[in-house]
Amino acid sequence: MVNLKSAIPAMILSFIVYIVYTGSIDPYDLLTGAIVAVIIGLLTGEIVIKDPGKAFDPKRLYWLIKYTIWYFLVAEVKAHVDVIKRALSPRIPLNPAIVRVPYYVETDYAMTTIANSITNTPGTVVVDIDYGRKIFYVHWIDAKTSDPGEARKMISLDFEEHARKIFD
Amino acid sequence: MLLNALLIFIGEALVAIGVFCDLAASIGMIRFPNFYTRLHAATVGTIGGAVVPLIGVALMALGADWLGNYRFFLAGASIVAGILILLLAPVGSHVLAQAAHKAGLASHEPIAFDHLEEDRRRGEKE
By CB atoms within 10 Å of each CB, which of A4, A7, B56, B62 scores lowest? Predict the structure, then answer.
């Protein structure tokens, strides 16, 4: 039996992606988009969405938009400037290390958001993850500390707070 | 008309930023000493050098009203491609790094300390 409640957010998302991708609102595109969206939603809704109530929460949407803007304008710019400076400076100042960075979120979506955010900022890459002890192993291009708590504050605290408000 | 000119100008600026990021990333790719540090240069190339110019292309297409209705198709395709790269590129870097570390194929030096190696030795991480 297909769970309709969790199929609806998946349908809406795939319909939006379809319409944005085709870039037109002709009846033909709306119809094919709706058919594709219904099929995709029924097939994947149960797998990708556990709690459909969260998908329609405007507060989470607000935090998602705020996080996206902050991430691109502040976090990414800072990290890019830092790594480009290192790549172009004559001495190549590096102090790489792999540090433990603990995380305190529950859902898979929040974990993935944090890991992707860490990897997408130049200068930090998640190398491995320990689900049992809730630790990311992060390769850090300029390791300022070897203490996991301090490293969490410097690398992932902002990402984690936003990810918790969006997905947890 | 002013809005179109502004969109095209901002789009071109974003593409120019992308060119600079790509250049810096390729220089870093050559100059950095080992596999893991080169991954950081590759990240500069995917976000600053692929996602940002794709958004710039989308803005330019929206401002180019001589393209007719095709401008929405161009803009939409660029935005969807940008978001997909943003979500999927880190998975690639992450899997490459994990596999290289697990198999011990890439040299770790220079490295200040390596907690993952320590935990593997102590058997806390398989």
Answer: A4
What residues contact B54, with CB distance under 8 A and at least 6 apart? Answer: B78, B79, B81, B82, B85
Contact predicate A37/A20, CB 8 Å: no
- Assess contact for B41 and A87: CB atoms under 8 A: yes
Q: Tell me what ipTM this predicted complex has.
A: 0.86
Contacts of B73 in chain A (CB under 8 A): 22-24
Candidates A23, A98, A126; nearest CB to B73? A23
A120/B86 Cβ within 8 A: yes
Work out the number of other CB atoms within 10 angstroms of the CB of residue A15.
18
Q: Where are the domains of chain A?
A: 4-55, 58-167
Is B125 at the interface with chain A, CB within 8 A? yes
Minimum distance, in Å, between the CA of residue B12 and any CA atom of chain A: 18
Beta bridge mates, A128: A137
What is the bridge-based pairing of β-strands A97-102 and A124-130? unpaired
A78-107: pLDDT as tens digits: 999 999 999 899 888 888 889 999 999 988
Q: Which residues on B lie below 8 Å from A87 (Cβ)? A: 24-25, 27-28, 31-32, 41, 44
Question: What global pTM score does this model have?
Answer: 0.88
- B11-30 confidence digits (pLDDT tens): 999 999 999 999 999 999 99
Q: Does B101 touch chain A (CB under 8 A)?
A: yes
For residue B73, the distance in angstroms to the closest alpha carbon of chain A comes to: 4
Candidates A21, A98, A126; nearest CB to B77: A21
